[in-house]
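Pilot study result, target chain (215 residues):
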Amino acid sequence: MKKYFNLIEANLLLNKLSKEEVNVGFSDGSFNINTFGRNNIIHFSGDVCRKLEIILSGQVSVERIDESGNLMTIAEFYDSEILGGNLLFSKTPYYPMTITAKQPTIVLAIDKKRLLRLLGTNHIFLESYMEFVADHTTIIGNRIRLYVGKSIRECVMAYLNYERQKQGSNRILLPITKKALAEQIGVSRTSLSRELAKMKNDGLILYDSKTIELL
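Predicted structure:
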């Protein structure tokens, strides 16, 4: 249990709680630790959101499968980020997409009643919680607008333009594998490779295993 307390103290949201508040949560069962192996499903699309879940360590992906069966990674979250914060108090508290642990992941779950007490008595925790909820809603909304309903080429160009601005160069060092990029834009690895080859033939890009250059 000591290792979990160390993770809690390092967590950007949970470190707003006092040790007494954390101890009370574990004592009465309103705080629970859950662990997930690599590629374990944390929530299926349609699951009811009953608790706030805070990632203590690991990597979590929000994923959507389209009508053709292609997997799209909508967003990725890491330690100190939350799951279900924008759903827990909704009239329709159902996860709209599948949530998967991409790496071994440890999550702290807080039940709704305990969360309400903490939000009502700890204003620093309340402010931090509201910030996390707003940021996550923005991230997921932006990703959906960026990719859904666009062609593979449009999705690739949107991703490359984002990375070009971020890295400050037309020669982009890929921070993820091409397989992961395919999942992000919701297509197969083969379809992505085919489109990259077409874009190269059309004089739009040059690429190798680790970089893509916008021409």
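One observation from the pilot: The first strand starts at residue 31 and ends at 36. A full batch analysis is planned for the follow-on phase.
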